[in-house]
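Lab notebook, design round three. We kept the backbone fixed and only want residue identities now. Task for the bench partner: fill in a sequence for the structure below.
Input structure tokens:
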């Protein structure tokens, strides 16, 4: 990205973050944001999230604890991953590159079975998030996790979109063991707390929501990652 593009994107981010109404949908952003710009915003946020994860890992190590989360661990891959359009757009753009044709083909082959098994869970999660009912989303997410539906981007235990995976997949923070990360575990995994990262992720989600609205993502709802990426790939293929 050139200096002019970088400056333009930074100004766009400033404008999107300037009014909470853009994230909530109470105010309409003055112009439409392209999916390419939305994907670029997600990429920039992911880079900062990764820096926060590294800082958290350093703190955990200094305290004599071990972070169990790493590539190849699949407990979180059974969680319902819900995203706004910018993160889905980043994944779709990555899959459209010729060098990632195998990952794209694997996803398209796995998607129908994933959709069948996921059933109505994505719609329930989207409705719960915007219901305003305390704890509704958390309860729906826990119920969805118990279904044990493996993400369509997981092939033979590995994440096929690991470089462009969404924020939810970047901030895994189980301590010591991943034994309790799957939905069938009778007890939750022990979690690491790192306030700076948590605060940044909260701000990042607001920016992603504002960008989603400005990019004319589905109004008033968050989407399952697999559904959103499939939809974007399908539209581009037409």
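Proposed sequence:
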């Amino acid at each position: 990205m050139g200096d002019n593009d970088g400056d333009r994107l930074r100004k766009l981010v400033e404008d999107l973050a300037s009014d909470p109404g853009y994230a909530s949908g109470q105010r309409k952003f003055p112009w439409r944001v392209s999916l390419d710009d939305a994907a670029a915003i997600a990429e920039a946020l992911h880079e900062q999230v990764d820096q926060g994860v590294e800082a958290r890992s350093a703190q955990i190590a200094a305290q004599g604890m071990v972070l169990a989360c790493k590539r190849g661990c699949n407990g979180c891959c059974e969680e319902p991953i819900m995203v706004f359009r910018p993160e889905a757009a980043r994944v779709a753009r990555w899959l459209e590159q010729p060098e990632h044709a195998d990952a794209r083909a694997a996803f398209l082959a796995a998607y129908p079975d994933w959709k069948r098994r996921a059933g109505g869970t994505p719609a329930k999660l989207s409705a719960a998030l915007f219901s305003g009912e305390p704890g509704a989303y958390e309860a729906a997410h826990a119920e969805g996790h118990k279904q044990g539906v493996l993400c369509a981007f997981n092939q033979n235990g590995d994440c096929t979109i690991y470089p462009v995976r969404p924020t939810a997949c970047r901030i895994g923070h189980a301590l010591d063991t991943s034994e309790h990360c799957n939905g069938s575990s009778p007890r939750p995994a022990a979690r690491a707390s790192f306030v700076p990262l948590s605060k940044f992720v909260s701000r990042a989600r607001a920016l992603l929501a504002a960008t989603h609205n400005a990019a004319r993502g589905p109004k008033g709802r968050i989407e399952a990652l697999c559904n959103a990426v499939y939809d974007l790939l399908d539209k581009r293929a037409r």
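Keep this in mind before ordering anything: Residues 26-237 form one domain.
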